[in-house]
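Notebook entry, cofactor series.
This is the third protein in the set we're modelling with a bound small molecule. For this one the ligand is zinc ion. I'm keeping the input format identical across the series so the outputs can be compared line by line later. Sequence and SMILES below, as received.
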Amino acid sequence: MVSCMISLLVWRNSIRPRSQPVSWFHIVWFTQCVPRHAFVVWLVLREKLKTQDKLQTWEVNDTQILLCSLCNSCPDSHNHLFFDCPFSNEVWRKAQQVIKLPFWSFNWKDFPGIISPIASLNSANAKLMYAATIYYIWQERNRRLFKGLKRSPARLYDDIVSTVRIKLLSVRFKESRQVKELKIAWQLP
Ligand SMILES: [Zn+2]
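Returned structure with ligand:
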């Protein structure tokens, strides 16, 4: 009887689907994260944003709509919006000063792999900057598409920096040499 129950448990565990821990969990949800930024990053990493390549699969015929609103060169997709788009590339190049990773040289398949090193950096400003950049690129795409409002890459970057700085002002850091440098760089009191 006992051996029968053990066999049943082994069989049940072998067929029960288990959710795998994802390597990028800590880069999305960390202590200082901005929840609305984290949510968009989570959607991006799960490829759940309603991008135009997905609308095409639903047979939307209006080709005027199906162009990336940031560069007007092709329909947008997760890979295009966050890696291939020249507009996004310009924003990432500016953000590299903080993130220290050349995001524009990667593609969608590399994404989870390149995020993990940032998580281990224990660098709040790099994580906040990375998440805010993703969030603002998606926001800018939607502002252009649905409201006709446009910002230049430089203006968008300024808005990202301003948002990250406001968040950093609310973070209570332990004093250290790195924190001192961070405060100088971000002009924090
Ligand atoms: Zn584009």
